[in-house]
Design brief:
The chain is of the alpha+beta class.
Length: 343
């Protein structure tokens, strides 16, 4: 489980813009549902962006005009009979706010406004900022393409807003039941990317000397052939002098896998193989200075892993981070993980 308020702090680490004074009220407010928290953040973020100015881009337009503008499409003008109405079909670029990122924000805001788990005051705040989006189209939530979205000079705020929208959309996509739209409930598994980004951002802020990054690892191959080998991309890599720590974050409903026949619990084999491959391929010189941690978000399960192993000279640990503690408790757990590694 995870406290709703801790989601705010995780977002604040991931998106530094949330640390500004304008978000202080949200930081101390009591939230019962994740949707309500995200609605409050989105309303405040959109309001701040409106003050800076909504993003605009040149978008292609085609219209029938009495006064020619841009490129005249003669064939289309004849085909549609516009010429007989003393109009011409013109093609031109318009500097418009009706761009894809704004359409995503509006679609998400409208979805939250319809949610039963968003407080009335936050719905009103969203409706207020949506008045500035009256010329902006909405999208079908399931058709949104999240890759390739462009950010410009105001990217810090926009990037945060789009990522909030992504978090909302992946949890609250409308489902059609008996001819009416219902909102599906927010589930913890939609937070796995946030968990990963938060841990990385935390170590970047509090341990800058350790150069926290999400880095790639090259395969150790004898003949140089790497065709079809999967990419090894770490969630978090920390470096201190000659020591390296690779952290792979996991956010599952079940931390352990269970053998149905014998009712025996064990670490997810795929996860363990993955961190083992990362560590052994990173430790090119077989020095033993490369360690690995599988970091799981704690669930309601009684049995939670906190194990340390030495595998062929390298330390590999399986740890659990309790996100249901106070945020000070979360900080303590993350700090202890570093201290154990350096011990």
């Amino acid at each position: 489980m995870i406290k709703i308020q801790n989601i705010y702090y995780m977002l604040a680490y991931t998106f530094q813009v949330l640390r500004k004074d304008s978000y202080k009220k949200i930081a101390v407010e009591d939230f019962k549902y994740v949707e309500d928290l995200l609605a409050a953040i989105l309303a405040k973020g959109i309001s701040s962006q409106i003050k800076r100015g909504l993003g605009r881009e040149y978008t292609p337009c085609t219209e029938s005009l009495s006064t020619p503008h841009g490129k005249i499409n003669i064939s289309e003008s004849l085909k549609t009979g516009m010429i007989h109405k003393k109009q011409l079909v013109c093609e031109f670029d318009e500097f418009s706010e009706n761009i894809y990122s704004n359409q995503i924000i509006k679609t998400t805001a409208m979805l939250l406004i319809r949610s039963h788990e968003v407080k009335l005051e936050h719905k009103k705040a969203l409706k207020k900022v949506m008045l500035y989006f009256h010329t902006i189209d909405t999208l079908h939530p399931s058709s949104i393409q999240w890759t390739g979205i462009k950010y410009h000079s105001h990217s810090a705020t926009y990037k945060m807003l789009i990522n909030i929208c992504y978090l909302v959309m992946n949890a609250l996509l409308p489902t059609i039941q008996a001819g009416s739209k219902k909102i599906s409930q927010f589930k913890d598994e939609h937070l796995h990317r946030l968990f990963e980004k938060f841990v990385l951002a935390y170590y970047r802020k509090h341990y800058p000397a350790y150069n926290a990054s999400a880095s790639r690892i090259d395969w150790i191959v004898d003949d140089g052939v790497i065709d079809l080998l999967p990419t090894m991309q770490t969630d978090i890599t920390l470096k201190y002098n000659e020591k390296i720590l690779i952290i792979d974050t996991k956010y599952y409903g079940s931390t352990l896998q269970t053998h149905k026949l014998y009712n025996r619990h064990s670490i997810h084999s795929g996860n363990l193989y993955q961190i083992f491959a990362y560590v052994k391929n990173k430790d090119i010189n077989r020095s033993g200075n490369v360690s690995g941690v599988l970091l799981y978000a704690k669930t309601d399960e009684t049995l939670t892993p906190n194990n340390h192993y030495v595998m062929s000279g390298n330390k590999i640990s399986v740890k659990t981070l309790d996100l249901d503690k106070s945020f000070e408790g979360i900080e303590s757990q993350l700090n202890n993980l570093i201290h154990e590694w350096l011990a």
